[in-house]
Amino acid sequence: MIAKTVTGNDFSGALEYGAGLRSDRTNKQAELLSVANVGSVDAPGIAAEMRAVAALSDRIRKPVWHTVLSWAPEEQVSREQKIQAAALYCELMGASLERHQVAVYEHKDKDHPHIHIYLNRVPIDGGAALRSDQNFARNVVATRQIREQLGMAPLPARRVSTKDLGPEREAARGYVREQLTAAMQDASVRTLAGLLDRLHQRQISTYLKRDAKGVLVGTSFEYAGQRVKGTEVGVRAKELRSHFAPFGREALRTPEHSNPVARQDSAALLTLTDQYAEVPAPATDDAQVNENRLKKRRRRPKL
Fold this sequence. Notes:
Layout: E1 2-8, H1 11-18, E2 31-36, H2 43-54, E3 64-70, H3 79-92, E4 102-107, E5 114-120, H4 135-150, H5 167-185, H6 192-201, E6 205-210, E7 216-223, E8 226-229, H7 237-244, H8 255-258, E9 270-271, H9 286-299
Antiparallel strand pairs: 1-3, 2-4, 3-5, 4-5, 6-7, 6-9, 7-8
């Protein structure tokens, strides 16, 4: 099982999608599974009630919390288990069902079971809103606990080979995943460089790939001689960008990213094992220097 979360400010649009009423994406197989702290059972009514409570806070700009819980296509999940998983997820994320408004829909338009959980971040008592930072790392922890308590299986991220199932590789993958999750849950780790420092202290090498514009597009890690991709441990470049986005653009910079020489080859993987060693500037031979000087002289106008 995996969870993906987004936040927004449009209760009507979110709940209409959940109920299968969006004109551009009609889903006649949507079903309302459960609600909390709302009297309505139709999407417009639920949205109106949630908006009224969200108006109690003039600080929260994105009161809509939308999470999709997905299971593997071959996993058999009963209706009751889906309701239990949704309720447990809300509690684990800090949204007590006694204080927050919730609506849970099941969609049957895919080949895998999945539900949509809609939360009002502003509680009905007007207290502190549900925090929305570090959602990715918190989702990893929450889904793990849900699987353990309800006896559900994890959703495989990709097809695995015999080589991937080796004990050394599996141990490395588990260690990297554990250290990444712990670091991303640490409130003091607010930059990508800080995360890489933390991993280096744990003997984990990190490799980043950026595109021509410097945008982070790939991640991989190495521990005990075993190289694992970000997709294998659930931390892709997309998740890192989303995780550090609230801290500003500078939070995603690393020393290599700030070095113009390092950006010349955007397709190369940048290793951060050696505490961000400076990349040396390319050498220019004497013949090239002399030729450049000669060209400059030729361009000078005659007096």
